[in-house]
Amino acid sequence: MNEADSRRVGSELEKLGYHYAPSAAQADVIVINTCVVRQSAEDKAYGFTASLKPLKQGNPRRTIALMGCLVGVKGNARLKKSLPHVDVFMPPGDPGPLIDHLLEQEQLKLNAFALARRHALQDGNLVLPAHLQHNMISAHVPVVYGCNHVCSYCIIPARRGVERSRPVGDIAREVRSLVAQGVKEVTLLGQIVDRYGYDAPDGPRMPDLLRTLNDIDGLERIRFLTSHPNYMDERLLQTVADLPKVCEHIEVPIQAGHNEILAAMKRQYTVDDYRRLIDRIRHYLPQTGIATDIIVGFPGETEAHFQGTLDVLAELKLDVCHSAMYSPRPGTVSAKIMPDDVSPEEKKRRLHAVNALQETVAAEISRRYEGKSVQILVEEKHKGKWKGRTRTNKLVFFEDEQDYKGKLVDIHIEWAGPWSMRGRPVGKRPKPVPEFILSSA
Ligand code: SAH
Fold first, then answer.
1. Which of the chain's ends, N or C, has fewer CB atoms near its CB within 10 Å?
2. Which pLDDT tens digit goes with each residue over 357-409?
3. Which atom of ligand 1 is the closest one to the Cα of 147?
4. Options 3.30.365.10, 3.40.50.10490, 3.80.30.20, 1.10.1520.10; which CATH number does 138-367 get?
5. Closest ligand 1 atom, CA of 155?
6. So what CATH class is 373-425?
7. Who has greater pLDDT, 127 or 76?
8. Residue 338 near ligand 1, beta carbon < 6 Å
9. If you take atom 11 of ligand 1, which residue's CA is the nearest one?
């Protein structure tokens, strides 16, 4: 979400005639986009922003703008006081305050042309920053902002505000303009993306949005995240199965593997509900990559509760598990009324246990790909190797002299580890083995 928000700020600034600077020290405008989902993220965001003070003192004409969840939709007076060198505070995803500030400051320099272009941008006609044009294969596109749920640990609803879905027309326009600039794959984003459209009665829902985007010429792949177990319904699964561009890739967090913890988290489903959901997903999409999120060390999580988490991961064998240690967030229900009673050492131990288990599960799933051919979309060349992803979101590397950027290629998988795979384009011979090895064999 922040990546997409940052890109939007970048493109708006380019409309005003700014361009990317190689470093903060050389920039006239510095924008810091922030995340506060865990305390460590908040500390990093705050620390980095504070560290920019000398740059502002060195050149008071420089504009420093702070954006995202550290600021939040409601603004934050204490934050403003403690960071006096910051000129502009922007809520998540809204470059408006910065643009207004710059327009005011530089009124004389800016002409009507720049303003007209800024206007054109607002109707979803997103122009990528110059360095990304025809260089960006996969783009994130927010489709629903904010969140109305109150998971007891989560600070996002307070900082990103109530759920607001973007109109289908705006999203389609943005995706078409991204495709015209070289993008081949979009990932639609929402805190609960399957709730797209729920904020407007009788409006289009996620399946309708997917159908509209599936018809866009030149777009090759569509993904969406994050799903919530209670909204991943059969109509949506059937739509994913039906539409050729929508990838077999579902991100649906369980968070914990014990009903008492799920209830305390206010997740509104049980472990059994989640089990049935995974069955349903696999029924509609037999070959699908499924990712989940886990929080370890939630208040009151006993060894037995935690064992439930390990058991369900071992049982369901999901492709990816994003894991995190519980971090109390000021203002959330869990931080207010539940003592953070699992020690840091114990949280770390549980985190390692989850990660070690997931590594064996992922290695087992990957091995099934060995000797098979998969279609990947090539994103970039990285350290001499082409890098792409399967429809199920597996990372694949291969070496070849040809230019594959932005192409769909069938790859014969030669080696598969837990986190990535290697192979060669189908139809290409394996690299010849050096003769001295052949003769010694
Ligand atoms: N709205 C999405 C994503 C939320 S943030 C969802 O509900 O899935 C991404 C992940 O961060 C969450 O899934 C959760 O696992 C983790 N997270 C959120 N709040 C947290 C907290 N206070 N401590 C630790 N992890 C947290």
1. C
2. 999 999 999 999 999 999 999 999 999 999 999 999 999 999 999 999 999 99
3. 1
4. 3.80.30.20
5. 19
6. mainly beta
7. 76
8. no
9. 37
